[in-house]
Amino acid sequence: MVNRIVFLLLLAALGAGGYVYWERSTHVRSTENAYVNAEVAQISALVSGRVIAMHVKDNQFVKKDGPLFDVDPAPYRVAVDKARAQVALARQGSTQDGAEVRALEAELARQTAELENAEVSKLRAESLLAKGFLSRQSVDDAASKVISGRAGVEHARARIEKARVAIAPANSQSPAVAAAKATLAQAQLDLDRTRVSAPQSGWVINKSLTAGTSVNPGQPLFAIIADRSFWIDANFKETELPGVHPGMPVEIQVDMYPGYKFQGHVESIGGGTGTAFSLLPPQNATGNWVKVAQRIPVKVLFDSYDPLFMPRVGATATVTIRLD
User: Which of 29, 163, 183, 274 has the fewest CB atoms inside 10 Å of its own CB, making it the most exposed?
Assistant: First the structure.
């Protein structure tokens, strides 16, 4: 009797185990080949100079636009003052250009009056020559004055046109003033960039920068892990992906928090296997070949975050997808 009961219990256990195996193999996809990832912003200076102050520590949480460090602003303040002086000089030069145009216009009026007088004198000399009261030389002298007067008028007009080029059109500013203002704007921008701020909220990592260090634009100094940007890179076998599609609910267990389950969803399925985009992809067309199921990355997003159980980049996890 006892043996029969044991046999029945063993049979029931095997049946339950078989059902669980069938259930998981047909309705569940799970992998331990999964790792936490996040958006990481590399921090660098936008201007060169010496760091004079640090406002954050390693692993510190900072808010967006919060101060990170300061580059010595002294040379950039000097550049701003110099640029402001150039704007003032350009405006003064523009005013002088206007005064010069008015002076040249007055000179043109004088040259025009002299030309008209020379033309009248020439006509009078020709009339007197016809009557025998003047010599041919006097008429020739009058004609020379007319030619000289016309040349003077043309020269004055050319000088006016040249002077007007440097003057801005109506309701505008001169090119010199515009260029000086652009230089001032760039100098002010460089000065503002001596205070480096956080591009987004997150945690400071890999900080080795200290006050007194000289930095250059584009030089990586440390990084910020963006807050609430965590996801899971789960690497499933290609044979496990049929039936998996974006939007499916996912259960996540991060190894550093045993017993706690995160909820997420499938965000996307990778466009290729991990080996296909490696530095040295396998060449299956050469040598002996053994068929091995490849792994394809699946991006899983967290649905929510608990401050007491924040994920950490690189932590291992177990991902379970139910196909129902």
Answer: 274
pLDDT tens-digit profile of 135-191?
A: 677 666 667 777 877 777 787 777 777 766 656 554 446 777 888 899 999 999 999
Q: Where are the beta strands (DSSP E) in 55-194?
A: 61-62, 67-71
pTM over 0.85: no
User: Could you list the residue range(s) of the whole structural domain that residue 149 is in?
Assistant: 75-189
Distance between CA atoms of residues 79 and 173, nearest Å: 23
**Burial class, 137, CB count within 10 angstroms (exposed 0-12 / middle 13-18 / buried 19+):** exposed
Helices (H) and strands (E) in the chain, counts: 4, 14
Q: What is the CATH number of the domain that holds 260?
A: 2.40.30.170
User: Residue type for 18, please?
Assistant: G
Q: Are residues 178 and 258 in the same domain?
A: no
pLDDT in tens, 127-141: 766 766 666 776 666
